[in-house]
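Hi there,

I know you've been waiting on this one. I reran it after we fixed the sequence typo, so this is the corrected version. Both the input and the resulting structure follow.
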Amino acid sequence: MIRAALLLLACQACTSAFAQNSATFVCGGVGDADQKAIKAQAPQHHLMLTFALSSGAYLADVDVQIRDSKGATVLSTRCGGPIMLVDLPSAGTWNVTAQSNGQTRQKQITAGSGKPVQATFTWPAGTS
């Protein structure tokens, strides 16, 4: 609960901040000021997900699911910005699925303790 409150306070300039199940997350990065604010907070969180096109353009409105190693969903939401910061309930291996315009990307990520982890999900240009 304290971590969720800190996440909300730390990223006041970000688009949205929420707690769901046992994960806390912020979505944002729309516009230069918001990108700077959310990226500045990234080192304080377990995971930073970035959504982009192969052209380098950022992508928003991505459906994201994070499941633990047993398949239980800890997060299922639509991220309204191209950057998502996530605090996970524990250290472990997480299956992250991101979907945009019917195209799914999936990664297995080990995160939740120690150094923050960054992962970028990329779709072909012209699919936004």
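Quick highlight: The first helix runs from residue 2 to 10.

Best,
R. S.
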